[in-house]
Write a structure and sequence with these properties.
single chain; 539 residues; alpha+beta; Rhopdopsin 7-helix transmembrane proteins; Heat Shock Protein 90; 14% strand
Length: 539
């Protein structure tokens, strides 16, 4: 049976119970006990509803609110019985009890709103002032109803309260309270609809809307005096009608899934092939599937999972109020593991030999690659290496000449170090950050300053550049620097996204024939532009 059919059948059952209650109230014989049968009937229904809420709602906070709603319905039925049974002849008390009807009448919609907010209560997003306001407004209405005899703003009567129980009018407080109840119920539906993550449940919201619509129609017709009467009495008095409507709304919300519930979860243990069972904190079994193993207290109290036998593992998880146990059949897994172990033993020696052979090949390939890389690098910095060897061999000179040679060695060694770093990075990247090139140029400028030549550098290039262009630009920069050093009096380097600009004071240089750099001179100052992507290897 589909959810829709189940819910419509449930609502039909509530309608039947409502009609039975109404007929009992209208036609019960005026005999002791029988005249009170409608109250007993409603009390039994309200207690059954309270127990249903307590047993079927998962979340503690939501369950607490719904149980409170069930208790208010029970209290309302008790007040109804007190009015019509115990105090029918005592008008002031009967009227006061009638006013007390509106305590549950006002609190039930408020608790319904709070129950909706408690669904996924980590998302309770009603502002504190709004919560206090809703409680305050509800409390104000309750006080206004309870003190109606003083102001008669909710109900107004003839002088001396003559015919107060049948001939009275409704004042502004009653209609404002009616509007307030409507707003609270509308807010309840809105919150539940938007917090529900199941589209199938959201599509069924029209089912709980049915008893809500009936309640709205009833209250409107009842307040206007148009609700059907039999023998001068309404077919369904105000308390029992509102109680049945409330029951219909919340039972519908639970059944369609807008409120998380554990309805029919006991059937899981009957229908499931999983050997599972639930125990309380004292390890007393509460629910158990048919194929679940008998467990000793030691097995139930064991931490983690244990083996009941070589092929059955028992898992344990602590839940609210106790523990859940389930069995895992590992027969097939053990068979597969045994086969795998046998195969693994046969392949162990072969795999070890293959591993060692592959390791050797990998190391040989790495060595060959590294050797080739270092040979290429040595070729690229060969001129600088030869100059360093020549300068280092000149040890028989004066201390000043030796110091100058060592400063030149530092400049050349700086280039070799920085070029080697860029060269090795270029092996793994097609592009590099321009900052890497600028670090190399900056360190070369620092070495030039150690020679007593003022230098200045600035870079505005924050992007990336191809590795070939970067290496070519740096090697050409070094070649031009070494060429200009004998007469160089000052050096400025500016790097931007397109080129490296050199401004040399006193330095005389010639550009290599196979490069695209440009050179110009003006009053002893040489300007060189090394464009990225076009600079060739220096010759």
């Amino acid at each position: 049976m589909t959810t829709v059919k189940k819910m419509l059948l449930l609502l039909l059952q509530l309608v039947i119970l409502y009609c039975i209650s109404a007929f009992i109230s209208l036609f019960a014989p005026d005999v002791f006990l029988l005249r009170y049968s409608s109250t007993f009937f409603l009390m039994a229904v309200s207690v059954a509803l309270l127990l249903y809420f307590a047993d079927h709602v998962i979340d503690h906070a939501t369950r607490r609110f719904l149980v409170d709603i069930g208790e208010l319905i029970t209290v309302w039925v008790a007040l109804r019985g007190a009015k019509y049974i115990a105090f029918t002849e005592t008008e002031p008390i009967a009227r006061t009890i009638w006013y007390l009807y509106y305590v549950p009448a006002m609190l039930i919609p408020l608790l319904s709103l709070f129950a909706a907010l408690s669904v996924g209560r980590e998302h309770w997003n009603l502002r504190p002032w709004l919560t206090r306001l809703s409680i305050g407004v509800t409390t104000l209405f309750i006080l206004l109803f309870a003190t109606n005899d003083l102001h008669q703003l909710a109900f107004h009567f003839h002088p001396g309260f003559e015919g107060w129980d049948s001939d009275y009018g409704r004042g502004p407080v009653f209609w404002l309270a009616y509007l307030w109840i409507f707003l609270l119920i509308l807010g309840t539906f809105y919150i539940l609809y938007h917090r529900c993550k199941l589209s199938s449940s959201r599509r069924l919201i029209w089912i709980p809307a049915l008893p809500t619509a009936f309640g709205a129609v009833y209250l409107s017709l009842y307040a206007a005096g148009l609700w059907p009467r039999i023998n001068g009495h309404y077919f369904g008095e105000f308390p029992e009608t509102v109680c049945f409507v409330t029951a219909g709304i919340w039972l519908s919300l639970l059944c369609v899934g807008l409120i998380p519930s554990n309805a029919e979860y006991r059937k899981l243990f009957t229908l499931s092939s999983l050997g599972a069972q639930i125990a309380d904190k004292d390890y007393q079994i509460l629910y158990k599937s048919s194929n679940a193993a008998e467990l000793s207290r030691e097995q139930m109290s064991a931490k983690g999972s244990i083996f009941l036998n070589p092929n059955t593992r028992l898992h344990r998880k602590e839940v609210s109020g106790g523990y859940v146990y389930w069995q895992g059949d590992e027969t097939e897994l053990n068979r597969i593991n045994a086969e795998l172990k046998e195969v693994a033993e046969r392949l162990a020696e072969e795999s070890e030999l293959l591993r060692l052979e592959n390791e050797l090949k990998q190391k040989r390939a790495q060595i060959e690659t590294q050797t080739k890389t270092y040979d290429e690098l040595a070729t690229c910095v060969l001129p600088q290496s030869q100059k360093i060897a020549m300068l280092s061999a000149s040890t028989g000179q004066t201390a000043e000449e030796f110091h100058a040679n060592m400063q030149m060695v530092c400049l050349l060694a700086t280039y070799i170090k920085r070029y080697a770093n860029l060269f090795l990075l270029a092996k793994d990247h097609k592009e590099m950050e321009a900052g890497e090139l600028w670090l190399a140029i900056s360190e070369s400028l620092k070495a030039v300053r150690e020679l007593g030549i003022p230098t200045e550098g600035f870079s505005s290039f924050q992007g990336s550049i191809s590795t070939n262009s970067l290496l070519n630009a740096y090697s050409l920069f070094q070649a031009l620097l070494e060429q200009a050093l004998p007469t160089l009096q000052g050096l400025q380097v500016i790097m931007n996204v397109q080129e490296i600009k050199l401004v040399l004071e006193g330095g005389r240089i010639l550009l290599p024939a196979d490069c695209n750099a440009t050179l110009s001179e003006e009053e002893g100052t040489t300007y060189v532009s090394i464009p990225f992507g076009k600079a060739g290897e220096p010759t």
